[in-house]
Amino acid sequence: MAIFRNTISKITMNQFKIDTQQGLTSTPKFLFSKYFYDEIGDKLFVDIMNMPEYYLTRTEMEIFKDKTTELIHSFDLNNEPFELIELGAGDGTKTIHLLRELLERSFDFQYKPIDISQNSLDKLSHYLKIELEDLSFFPLNGMYFQVLEKLHHVKKRKIILFLGSNLGNLLDEQASDFLSKLSASMNPNDVLVLGLDLIKSKEIVLPAYNDKSGITAAFNLNVLTRINKEFKANFNLDKFRHAPEYNEETGVATSYIESLDAQAVFIEDWNQTIHFEKGEKIHTEISRKYNISILEKLISKTDLKLIHSIMDEKGYFADFILKK
Predict the structure, then answer these.
(1) How do residues 221-251 score in pLDDT, each as one tens digit?
(2) What's the pLDDT at 7?
(3) What is the pLDDT averaged over residues 175-185?
(4) Are residues 140 and 254 in the same domain?
(5) Which of 132, 133, 137, 192: CA 20 to 30 A from 201?
(6) DSSP string for residues in 72-132
(7) How distant is the alpha carbon of residue 306 from its chain centre?
(8) Together in a domain, 157 and 303
(9) What does each C-alpha distance from 95 to 57, 115, 156, 293 come to in angstroms?
């Protein structure tokens, strides 16, 4: 879910303006988390994934590193050529374990990571060229469904990876719609590997979104820095704070930016002043946690069927295998 200044189109930049203007003038205020990811945001998110509190990366890494054979077996490949497509590939440190095993077993496949961030794809390309010289690798820059639509006609079987519990950044209605669109882009027998964070206690979950070193706070507040840069705004980050919450019953973690004072922010490019009350919050992100019941409800209107699940040893995280 990322956008980069050096590669952004005028249309996408205009959408950033429309979305941001709408969010900051709404009641309550909101900003879309997809705008976290400029070059600084990308680096901060990599730092987040390496935090001791951020269990999500370690637990899914455990699945891809230690349960690779089970993962491949669940694809039911039968030695036919296929395309391995990853939505939002990131730095590739989890996927490389799967890629290496597939190469060692001489499977006939092409790896196609899709990301809106060209910067991320460039870094991933450099990494994979060094680590896996024999990999057939085709990075694709763009929005997920725009690229998948172009790949829909491909007759090869597709294994689609959507990892890191990125689905959890959507409300359930949006997630259901996302999975419906994803299912529509797939052909019969195509497989979706859906990595989801599981519902747990707040003692485990909340520190992952409010680390002691303040990396997550910097990541969340960076969207204000980006608005300052892109639209000549004068947000003073010292007057805002990162404010995460987690509800164990619903399994929803929520991130906010809270105004520490009553204040006004002027955005020069819009010729507009945005007013904040003390304690007023900007909603920036949700991070939904799941169980099988929730997932089954989300896919109930799709052609996807849950056929297998693989969890880490602590049962914190699961990669669900869904087949069309």
Answers:
(1) 999 999 999 999 999 999 999 999 999 999 9
(2) 37
(3) 94
(4) no
(5) 192
(6) HHHH--TT--EEEEEES-TT-TTHHHHHHHHHHTT--EEEEEEES-HHHHHHHHHHHHHH-
(7) 21
(8) yes
(9) 12, 14, 20, 27
